[in-house]
Amino acid sequence: FWYTFDDTAGVYPYFCRVHELMPMNGTVTVIDPATGVAGAPPLFRRHGAS
Question: Does pTM surpass 0.70?
């Protein structure tokens, strides 16, 4: 699975269609390319974790 976000920064909901009832879902955070990786949030944070 892949998707292009067209350079639109934001937080987008995600769910796995196959495992939706488990529930396998979360968010995808897209940052502005001008911000770079320094402005990126931590990767692979568990849903509900702080």
Answer: no
